[in-house]
Write a structure and sequence with these properties.
It is built from 11 helices and 12 strands. By secondary structure, the protein is of the alpha+beta class. The chain folds into 2 domains: 103 residues, Phosphorylase Kinase, domain 1 (2-Layer Sandwich), CATH 3.30.200; 199 residues, Transferase(Phosphotransferase) domain 1 (Transferase(Phosphotransferase), domain 1, Orthogonal Bundle), CATH 1.10.510. Helix 4 runs antiparallel to helix 6, helix 4 crosses helix 10 and helix 6 packs parallel to helix 9.
């Protein structure tokens, strides 16, 4: 099939791709080589929840996320063509003990952890502001790129991100950071899941509100990496009577339970938890202004690939 990438149109043959399977057997990914240029390609058998988000990202990108170049349907498959990042997932880096290759020390230092949490928070905020939320917050979906000047953190797997008004089946995503709101719903006798058919189960809370609880637990999860076993619960230690954050977090989750937005409370928790100023978090929000500038870079590289 013909794929338009900026000012160029290239022929793409999916049969020549070395496809690899994701956790979902319906999804595959691979790298399309155009000369010296690599394009990351994902292929779906079903329309993914984040298709609408990726359509928006082509026109105006989101903070700390790969650039989406093209979306296309062909022969009963859906294809997403996007920026191919040069690095590795945070999960692989930690499991392979490669932290010194990407970060300041052989183990994740406090500044590295702050950079990860603030970058992810900025990414999710940019999604939320445009009506989308991020369900699959996991180390496997945090991509680390080492540049000569600094370490950059990207949030990947945008295809899993629905809009706040979309029904969402939680069956295919990691729910590690969902614990806080799930337990709050259970404690107060409210169903966290609702059935919409014989085989269809959806979440009851607003996804953007769930993201706020998830970011709090994610900050705690990252801060304790290398200190306590990752298998221990996330939420219970934070609301333990000995925790200085217990009362605050209980109030935040009660607000979320009642459908109230708690973004400012989430920001305040993250800043207090890492003992940093709010201005440092807000600086992350600025980042590189999203827009069409990625097309200029792609076109330049495609021209170089032809020569």
């Amino acid at each position: 099939m013909q794929v338009k990438l900026g000012l160029f149109t290239k022929f793409f043959d999916p049969n020549t791709m070395n496809w690899k399977n994701q956790s979902s057997l319906n999804d595959q990914f691979g790298v399309w080589k155009i000369g010296k240029r690599n394009i990351f390609v994902k292929r779906f058998q079903k329309l993914p929840p984040g298709w609408r988000l990726m359509e928006e990202a082509i026109v105006k990108s989101f903070l700390n996320t790969p650039q989406i170049y093209r979306l296309q349907e062909d022969d009963n498959f859906y294809y997403a063509f996007m920026e191919c990042l040069d690095g590795d997932t945070l999960y692989n880096i930690i499991q392979g003990r490669k932290t010194s290759d990407f970060f300041q020390t052989s183990g994740l230092g406090n500044e590295d952890k702050i950079n990860i949490v603030l970058s992810v928070t900025a990414s999710i905020r940019s999604l939320n502001l445009r009506g989308f939320w991020y369900p699959d917050l996991d180390l496997k979906n945090i991509f680390v790129v080492k540049t000569p000047k600094k370490t950059k953190i990207f949030l990947i797997d945008l295809d899993s991100c629905p809009s706040s008004d979309q029904s969402f089946d939680p069956g295919n995503v990691s729910q590690v950071c969902w614990e806080g709101l799930v337990k709050t719903y259970l404690k107060h006798g409210k169903p966290f899941l609702k059935r919409e058919g014989p085989n269809i189960v959806r979440i009851a809370p607003n996804g953007i509100h769930l993201n706020q609880s998830m970011l709090i637990l994610f900050a705690h999860y990252i801060k304790r990496l290398g200190i306590v076993p990752k298998e221990l619960p996330l939420y219970d230690p934070l609301i333990n009577s000995k925790s200085p954050f217990s009362g605050t977090l209980s109030l935040i989750h009660l607000k979320l339970l009642d459908g109230e937005d708690s973004w400012r409370d989430t920001e305040a928790f993250i800043c207090n938890y890492f003992s940093i100023s709010k201005s440092r978090l807000q600086k992350k929000y600025q980042g590189k202004k999203p827009g069409k500038t990625h097309w200029v870079e792609l076109i330049r590289k495609l021209k170089n690939a032809r020569t």
